[in-house]
Amino acid sequence: MTAYFFVLLLQFSTNIFMSIELSEQEQFRRQSLTELRNLGIDPYPAALYATDAYSTDIKTEFKDEESGNSVCIAGRIMSRRIMGKASFMELQDSKGRIQVYVSRDDISTEAQPEMYNTVFKKLLDIGDFIGIKGYVFRTQMGEISVHAQELTVLSKSLRPLPIVKYKDGVAFDAFDDPEQRYRQRYVDLVVNEGVKDIFLKRTKVYQSMRDYFNAEGYIEVETPILQSIPGGASARPFITHHNALDIPLYLRVADELYLKRLIVGGFEGVYEFSKNFRNEGMDRTHNPEFTAMEIYVAYKDYNWMMTFTENMIEKICIDVNGTNEITVGDKIISFKTPFKRITMIDAIREHTGIDINGMDEVQLREVCKSLHIEANETMGKGKLIDEIFGGKCEGNYIQPTFITDYPREMSPLCKRHRDNPELTERFELMVNGKELANAYSELNDPIDQLGRFQEQLKLSEKGDDEAMFIDMDFVRSLEYGMPPTSGMGIGMDRLVMLMTGQTTIQEVLFFPQMKPEKVAKKDSPDKFIELGIRAEWADVLIKIGILTPEALKGLNTNKLHQDICGYNKKQKLELKNPTKEEVEAWFKSL
């Protein structure tokens, strides 16, 4: 009785779905779902389905003399060639695709005699998950395939996949609209070749970096994402509220200050892959949520860290791509060590002809004006210099280049340069015209650190909403003593972009941040009826996707007449078809 009630409930739910505006294919798939259940087949079984092989491994390891080896595979149906008593289909698993031969006499059983003629041929669709038990063989055409001896339905797909067809390496009917691809990454991964490979390489990048750090004995740690003070970087934070404590909290902009506290606490080398959040702009290389890696090592300086960093980047490139060169667009970038090194002041002189060494804020504003660089009153010396470098220099460094020795005002957490107190011991690694890594000889003088924080407070009072907060607990930790330390941070998303040859950050994030999806405007049938359209046809127009009277504009009247008459026939609505003249009259009333 309970099982019977459950079946009735499922059928009732299906009927409700059918009343929602669904495409013709979606309606057919829901009907197939019901028919599968009526045959006693659960389209979403809970039982374990234990596979023992993957498509690519089967093809790689196959030997003709071993033809007949038993396998159990599972995946999505991606194409079918339905014939008489036997058919072929292509199955896609997590590693690739393989052809499957399906015969009526093999998969139809006494318990389920309709498994081939009804289930396979009529009720299964492209996109459905199935399991296949059978054996491996080579077809007369020479293709390594699996001969199915048992077929199990594992999951019914209720939406049709976009079918991308390839010929001579060229995609047709491509699912290539970025808006759709990023919103529906789950579809993008299924139908577009090469997308999954990007994310597999992303994993290799992380693994290579971890191996490099772990081999040196450095410790991977975790630090808070919710912070009472958003320290460690000059950036605008996201703000939230903790109800139990009744205090504002911030999503971290960096994990630097917590990692340095661990160096104070006695760790010699610590690193973290951290999710950071900055409430700033979005473009091809910025996402408000991003992944950074930061590492801090005691008793080192920024010169040591430059060598450490370039060796790490070359290793990662070789581990991921098998070579120390990558191609990004029409550029070939070499990570062969050593990388070029140039001071920031020399870089600005090289690309502008202006020596900013020793200039004050007023003089720097004049330089910005002469170079047509926008500057406002909230900007101090550091911001002005940063704007000059960003506008005139940064984009020129395609090959890996260390930009070193930044002015003190740009680096409130960095140790003063040992030879020039107006500079700091800092470098940024530029690749393909963008910053990839940032590193310091870390400031460990608590008195100097407090003074730098106070300078940042003055910038905040002038209106700079990216100036750092004063973290007095961090100052207190330095007062207990931190050994000489070098730290380095690297944008993991940008690193993955480079290692995979991508030019936009959205391509290397599974789910990049996007604006809310627009909901199509939909009018009630009354709006159509006002134009003289009969009520029954107003409903049909909405169901075939014409959601407003304005959407009729520009449509071909003959094509629209064919579509609604065809819909009437297929759905067995038994309505009296309108004449062509009646449909033409709809357009005249717009």
Element layout with pairings:
Layout: H1 2-19, H2 24-38, H3 55-61, E1 70-81, E2 86-92, E3 97-103, H4 104-107, H5 115-123, E4 129-138, E5 144-155, E6 165-167, E7 170-172, H6 178-183, H7 185-191, H8 195-215, E8 219-220, E9 226-227, E10 239-242, E11 247-251, H9 256-264, E12 269-277, E13 289-298, H10 302-321, E14 325-328, E15 331-334, E16 340-343, H11 344-352, H12 361-370, H13 381-392, E17 401-404, E18 426-431, E19 434-441, H14 446-461, H15 472-479, E20 485-491, H16 492-500, H17 525-529, H18 535-543, H19 557-570, H20 580-588
Parallel strand pairs: 3-5, 8-12, 16-17
Antiparallel strand pairs: 1-2, 1-4, 2-3, 4-5, 6-7, 9-11, 10-11, 12-13, 13-20, 14-15, 17-18, 18-19, 19-20
